[in-house]
Specification:
Length: 215
């Protein structure tokens, strides 16, 4: 394992635990939650931190619903008390205010351009009374998906490099990172009536943002 990978893993685990504590300070037993962005663990080998929220869920699994763009085959056998729903990445297949909370960890940066990110946020706000989501800080020195150092601070250079070396991340359709300023703009343009942005720091540098909001 490279030094960068080791640092990244340590930061990731610490970050996940911190964000769960944030969420559970608001989410209480008996409430329902929609986990937006689950990964199907039966289709391929996944990292230990994949579906971390699901794997460490603290309450009765019957209050948990997972939503993702992957097929749900096999997930109900791994987690028989949970409900998993697949969708096309557009409108969420749920009623208004169907859930008490939405939880979504590091998904919004993958859904597309500004318009798609705004729709994604508005859908989370539509189906739940409260929303908690997280996203990496664009200006943390190490880009968490590609392990690139500093280059991602410049969109042109970053996407040009990715087109050659990391094709999956080579356009905004697959990876469009947030600075705090751009995140604030998105929230102001969304249906959110109130919101709080929490800067999660490592060594005094913001690694990720947590957002708590409602319509």
């Amino acid at each position: 394992m490279s030094i960068i990978s080791a640092i990244k893993k340590k930061i990731t685990i610490s970050s996940r635990k911190k964000k769960l504590d944030q969420f559970y300070s608001k989410f209480k037993e008996g409430m329902t939650v929609l986990d937006v962005g689950f990964t199907n663990e039966t289709k391929r080998k996944v990292a230990d931190t994949t579906n971390y929220f699901l794997k460490t869920y603290r309450y009765d699994y019957k209050t948990y619903t997972g939503l993702g763009i992957e097929e749900t085959d096999g997930m109900d056998q791994l987690y028989p008390r949970c409900r998993f729903v697949s969708y096309n990445g557009e409108t969420f297949p749920f009623k208004d205010n169907e859930f008490d909370w939405v939880f979504s960890n590091a998904v919004i940066e993958h859904v597309g351009n500004d318009i798609k990110q705004k729709k994604f946020l508005n859908e989370m706000l539509r189906v739940a009374k409260n929303v908690y989501f997280t996203t990496p800080n664009k200006y943390f020195p190490i880009e968490s998906h590609s392990n690139i150092v500093f280059l991602h601070w410049n969109n042109y250079l970053f996407y040009k490099y990715c087109a050659k070396m990391k094709p999956w991340w080579s356009t905004k359709e697959h990876l469009y990172l947030f600075s705090k300023r751009r995140l604030q703009c998105l929230l102001k343009e969304s249906c959110a009536r109130e919101y709080t942005i929490i800067c999660n720091r490592t060594a005094l540098i913001t690694t990720t943002f947590s957002v708590i909001c409602k319509k």
